[in-house]
Amino acid sequence: MRKGQQGITLLEVVLGMLVLALGLFAAAALQVKALQATASARQHSQATYLVQSLLEQARAGGSVEDSGQWQAQIRLALGAQAEGWVQSSGSSLKVIVDWPDARDPEHQGVSLQGWP
User: Count of domains in the chain?
Assistant: First the structure.
C-alpha cells in the first residue's frame, strides 16, 4: 500500500504566495489609479465652480475686470501655476481656467461662455 500525500510541498506554498502577491499588487495598482482619477475629478470640479462663480458675478452686475481675488482663489485651489482669464467678445464672456497636471504632461482646463 502506498501512503497518501500528507502535506503540501514547498513548491505549492511558493506558488500560492506568488499568486497572492500578484493579486495584492493588482489591487494596489487599481487603488492608485482610483486615487489619481479622484484627484483629477476634484480639480475639474473646483475649476468649474470658480469659472461659474465669475460668470455669476458678471450676471449680477459685478465687475470682472478686477479679478485679483479670483486669481488668488484659482491658485489656492489648483496650484501656484494655475491661471484664469476672461475673454470678452461683444456681449458674451468666455472664462477660462488652466492648470498643470502632474500626472499628465498637458495642461488641464475648463472653459465656459456666458452672457451677462
Answer: 1
Q: Taking all residues of the chain, what is their mean pLDDT, rounded to a whole number? A: 87
CB contact set of 116 (below 8 Å; sequence gap of 6+): 55, 58, 59, 61, 91, 93
Q: What is the arithmetic mean of pLDDT over 3-7?
A: 68
The domain in which residue 57 lies consists of 10-114
Percentage, residues of the chain above pLDDT 90: 47
Give the pLDDT band (50/70/90) at residue 3: low
Contact 96, 85 (CB under 8 A): yes
In angstroms, the CA 86 to CA 93 distance is 7
Contact 100, 107 (CB under 8 A): yes
**pTM attached to this predicted model:** 0.74
d(CA 93, CA 69): 18
Does the residue 3 lie in any domain?
Answer: no
Residue 4 lies in a domain: no
